[in-house]
TrEMBL record:
InterPro entries per the UniProt record, alphabetical: AB_hydrolase_fold, Pept_S9_AS, Pept_S9A_N, Peptidase_S9_cat, Peptidase_S9A, Prolyl_oligopep/macrocyclase
PANTHER family: PROLYL ENDOPEPTIDASE
Protein species of origin: Pelomonas aquatica
Domain Peptidase S9A N-terminal: 26-433
Protein name: prolyl oligopeptidase
Amino acid sequence: MKLTLSAITLAAVVATSAHAQSLTYPVTRKADQIDAYHDTAIADPYRWLEDDNSAETKAWVTAQNQVTDKFLEAMPQRLPARRIYTELYNFERYGIPFTEGGRYFWSRNDGLQQQNVIYTAKSLKDTPVVALDPNLLSKDGTVALSGLVPSRDGKLLAYGTAGAGSDWQVWKVRDLATGQDLEDKIDWVKFSGAAWTADGKGFFYSRYDAPKEGAKLTGANYFQKLYYHRLGTPQADDVLVTENRDDKEWGFGAEVSDDGQLLLINVWKSAGSKNGLMVLPLPKGAFAGGKPQPITLDFDAMYSPVAVTGGKLVVKTDKDAPRGKLVAIDLKNPAPAGWKTLVAEGPDAMTAASGVGGRFLLSYLNDAATLVRVHGAGGKRLSEVKLPGVGTASGFGGRWSDTETFFSYTSLTTPSEIHRYDVKTGKIELFKKPKTAFNADDYETRREFVTSKDGTRFPIFIAAKKGLKLDGANPTLLYGYGGFNIPITPTYGVTAASWLKMGGVYVIASIRGGGEYGSAWHEAGTKLRKQNVFDDFIAAGEWLVKNKVASPQTLAVNGGSNGGLLVGAVANQRPDLFAAAVPQVGVMDMLRYQNFTIGWAWATDYGTSSDNAEMFKALYAYSPLHNIRSGAKYPAIMVTTADHDDRVVPAHSFKYAAALQAADTGPAPKLIRIETNAGHGAGKPTSKIIEERSDILAFIANTMKLEVK
């Protein structure tokens, strides 16, 4: 909503009162901890906060939450922001349907259910029945589904669950006819799904050894192994399919070909996109042991299986093609010299590929908006899927023999619609369209292009109420990520919708480090070139100010995980550009991140402080924890994390918040909001999502003295 002058004046009085609360931060003990990095001594006084099990750390968490809760409770924006967020979150949502064994499966949430419910039906016209309701697995909704795979005959359902947001999973098997679980139970699964053999007698999965006592949420994860579990047998009897005792970083993902005759093994060594590929025959659709045979283990590019047809393995790869291409590999002679290009690299980045109905459905990004092209089995381009508009489409899964597939379409102001696509005719039918309290007709999205410090051009998407006045007074929230080849594209989210309804402008930036323009774009924001990511994000903020969308008094930044690192870095480098900054579950200690859980796998994007002196200097130059500028006037900052985050351990945020509070960075609040019984974000129950994200918006609104009704 737009504010009248009298409303703005009133808001300033009320918000200033809340904003100017007398904040007394808990005193955080400083330890005499100094480490040497390539002959450089670096103090780490808050090292003790890395011990999440210590009584002192737990007391610190309690004390910090008390300060933050008191501040948030006094904000006049908190309750109306939560009401708006709840209202907009409360709508019926559907997942993308898929088929198996003559059944359709999809997820649904009636609006405010803590977790999505899985439904199944034999046809889209039948009344669906509940296949699995995760809300019955815990009283508070903190046990979430982490994976779901029906057997080929559609009679059994292998499913994974994760508790309190942890990455650790437990897998079980449900009989869909009785609704009861079998006795099978698989523990210590992480970063893995399940893949049934076609005979339905068992499935493949990957796991780690059980962690040492007290190290479940912080210990490093190495030496993943791929197993086959045969139904009705204990996990101790599972058959080891493959491992690498000589390289602790190898991990394995498994899928079974559509014809059931081949196990496709993705071998990964990091969170980067480069991987290896192996295959193992499954005679008559059964696991008969044997040693997987490599297709490639050079780890020089991305290799993603798309289909197996006519004795050929079709793979999406960026080998010698930074924007991606499709190649066919003869399984009898898989040497790279014999690979045949089916679809050559084009001007747009190929982000996904599937083989459905004897055709290839290839998804591309054109300036961060989705295009989907249809190619024949021989690679010839046949047509293009007509999407509803300029936005983001995903899905298009299925088998080579299927005649239909489903996809979702969304934009910054369009909630995800689910469509059915007939592969043969190209006909598109709407399956589900949500009804929300958000009136999209009142808003518009436009794509603009920003030029970064070194001349690189990238897109931003600006969502605002129609008739936006360019006077620099618009409360504006800028979101970014910039890492791990993950593209940031226009999608609907309740956070953006709530901010728009509160009268704000919402902006996303498709910056380097992501996958918007292919692997070269990604690599331009990694390791020694990571500063490009921060330069891009700062340039986006400067563009918004220069073009009078916002001003430094009305511009806030937000991002999570790698995006939390982004926000922490730009707040240090340009504290004058932003009024508020909210880094969520961020990687804040760039010198030690690799020592915890799966952090070592991020080295492909970041490098590590132990690599060499040059890499250490680059990391040290932007590490949010190590570059807080005492004496500079910082924006209001609220750090968010969770006590069960075993992806980016909360110690990152703990140490960063302690350092912020100890430094002289001006009068604006420096708070940390620590969620309990929650993790990095996946599977978080609805109630916690609403509470956390509405608090973030209220904090930003309070900083900008924005009245929220």
